Amino acid sequence: MKFLVLPCDGIGPEIIDASVNVLNAANDKYELGIELEYDEVGFPSLEKFGITLRDEILEKAKSFDGVILGTQSHADYPVPEKGGRNVSAGFRVGLDLYANVRPARTRSFLDSNLKAGKSMDLVIMREATEGFYPDRNMAKGWAEVMPDKDMALSIRKITRHCSERIAHQAFKLAMKRNKKVSAIHKSNSFHMTDGLFLEAVNHVAKEYPDVELDDYLVDAAAAHLVRTPEKFDVIVTSNFYGDILSDLASELSGSLGLAGSVMASDSLCCAQAQHGSAPDIAGQDKANPVSMMLSVAMLLDWLAEKHESDNYKQAALAINSAVDEVLKDPQKRTGDLGGSLGCQRFGEEVATALQ
């Protein structure tokens, strides 16, 4: 197996280094045969090539079994005309990584932001190639316009094809979990777009009679995540709602830094931490690499299923278990969780626990 590693911006290189340390330990123990190749995206690419994401990187990624992508400082990039291409969006659209999978779970040994006695264990299946995002829902051009300086318009795109395929991924995942899918929408206001999304999900549901389907308006779903998170198992939703709800769910479960994430098509998977690039602490060894580590574990799990590999499955489980084992010790946590370890030392502890 070959992985393309792209450290990107901010704390990306640090959390990538710590996670690769853990991946190497799993590679050795479970004889995964993984080879790593590094390249540049984000600000390093902008400085060297004049653009944050080159087309040749996307083409190159197609020849790899997996991609490990660091955090990006997209808000600080120049305008697209001057090379500031959104790296994540470029991968999602350019490689059709339509399924953004974002789990969130509480841990008994870590504080959460839920009410006392409440727990959470859910996965948000977010469609990632269309929706409200103006940089990815047109074949050409940008989906936001300003007819005059006091008016701005944005176009939303929802298709039956994209809605049905993300729904299939949600139902397939639910079959492995608790056989429940919740569709999140706002069809009482967005009659056509969210109406089409909900129609597509209900159509797909007929192929999975063993899975219970319910649906919530997005505002009600946010309230239930706070008050009754046990209602949810697998959430399926469009791009914009999924982006917001996944951050909410992860923060409620303890921290955005404790949740993994992958972007996947039917043929390629990319591991990417849920959180941003945190440029204010970049280069200071203060970053929490857990999200990136768990994203790498999710990538291994995705490959395990694709190739029916028990070794990869065991390696993914081992990374998750090793991360939790280290987090159980308050002194071995990173500073954001009240501990005293730096990013690299935390990675070393997880690698040791795994071995």
Describe this structure in words.
There is one protein chain. The chain is α/β, with parallel strands linked by helices and 355 residues long. It is 41% helix and 17% strand. It has helices at 12-30, 43-49, 55-61, 87-94, 160-176, 193-205, 218-227, 239-253, 290-307, 310-327, 343-354, and strands spanning 2-6, 35-38, 66-69, 99-105, 121-127, 144-148, 151-154, 180-185, 212-217, 234-237, 262-264, 269-272. The strands form 2 sheets. A 10-stranded mixed beta sheet has the order 2-1-3-12-11-4-5-10-8-9, sandwiched between helices. Helix 7 (218-227) packs parallel to helix 8, helix 9 (290-307) packs antiparallel against helix 10 (310-327) and helix 10 crosses helix 11 (343-354). The model has no long low-confidence stretch (mean pLDDT 96).
Could you give a short description of this structure?
Helices cover 41% and strands 17% of the residues. The chain has helices at 12-30, 43-49, 55-61, 87-94, 160-176, 193-205, 218-227, 239-253, 290-307, 310-327, 343-354, and strands at 2-6, 35-38, 66-69, 99-105, 121-127, 144-148, 151-154, 180-185, 212-217, 234-237, 262-264, 269-272. The strands form 2 sheets. A 10-stranded mixed β-sheet has the order 2-1-3-12-11-4-5-10-8-9, with helices on both faces. The chain has a two-stranded antiparallel ribbon with strand order 6-7.
